[in-house]
Amino acid sequence: MKAVLRTRTRSLPGLLLALVVIALTVLAPRATAATGVSTIADALRKSPVYVDPAAATQLSTAQADTLARQIKDANKPLFIAVLPAGYPTRNLFTDLRTATGITGLYAVRLGDRFDARADSSVLPRTAVRNLVTSVQGETASNQLTDFTDRALTNMGGKAPSTWGGGSAHGSGVSSTALITIGAVVVAGGAGAYTLVRRNRRRHEEEQRAALDRLRVVVDEDITAFGEELDRLDFHPAEPGADNAMRADYERALNAYDQAKQSMADARRPEDVRTVTQALEDGRFSLAQLAARREHRPLPERRPPCFFDPRHGPSVTDATWTPPGGSPREVPVCAADATRLADGRDPVMREVDTDHGRRPYWDAGPAYGPWAGGYFGGGLLPGLLIGTALGGWMSAPAYAADYGTGYGDFGAGGYQGGDLSGADFDPGDFGDFGGGGDFGGGGGDSGDFGGGF
User: Fold this and answer.
1) In the chain, which residues have pLDDT < 70?
2) Strands annotated E in 346-433
């Protein structure tokens, strides 16, 4: 009996040590909890910058908080995560975007490597790639600061409403925090749904206001085209009329009817593009008809006059310098070509703005869809480089406000900062050319860069 007691007494320190190990294992922050995608996502839903405890030497608390304040002040959906070098990279961006559930731009510093991905409604792939490439090889602090500065200037969207205070650095997860997170998850479905509906209502109101402003300009264009048809004085049965002339005339009439119907059906600013496309087609048909009636060579298909599409198809390119801009070649009608050659100002299309009458290219992004229908094909942003509208149309913010290519808003119709959950295009977060010179050999060939 005494021997048994002595044995149990000698084993007591071992038992205590085992209990201490178990307690530390249960209560201490686990590696998977500190570095799991869900943990990172939870942190990014509260603050734009997350620094993993294992990567704390990469970015100090003060530096992380400075970045977070800058992003919040800019009101942009930029998310930054600093992770240790050994963190798994397979499907990292896609999984992080799914877990966070917020449309935005996601940047990750992983060891000494860096890459980023974004929803196309916030920042196009080419822009993401260029931004990533521009900061390669810098120290963590400089790299993240430079990337943040440049990204905030170029990206669109708004910051999510979920951001609040708190440190950007990761920490242990307490039982109270876990209970709170659980409660948030339970209520999150209804809250996210309410927020999405509110954002959509706000966006619909903004679109209606923009469409009302465009409607005035488009109605002027439709009226002007109708007056051209009246002045034409062409009768399909008149002497000398042939089938080609009648076909030109019919196409012009159809374009007029289509423009009126499309404007009546328009519900968003983007819908105006089909109206001005129809008017541009109609005016070219009239130019062909005029050439046939006058026995002239048929005109080549050219963009409309840059200064006012109501002037009809351009006949040549001329050098023009916008106020405060640099010279560029623009398509012009014969009358404006003569004016420019004589050193006079062209007859410019002006529209109403909050600051009075302005040329359309200096009147704000709402006129992008209107102008895009006339020029399209990527031509207009190139013409307008150095002008106000050109800056808007070439910037990602324009895609976020009016849709990529003057079209829809992309998957789900969500803008930057919206709680879209898993409703996003995974192609935006896959391996689209490496996202930058991420090098690195080996790894799990995921989506964190072509080098893995």
Assistant:
1) 1-35, 164-199, 203, 324-325, 364, 376-452
2) 350-353, 356-359
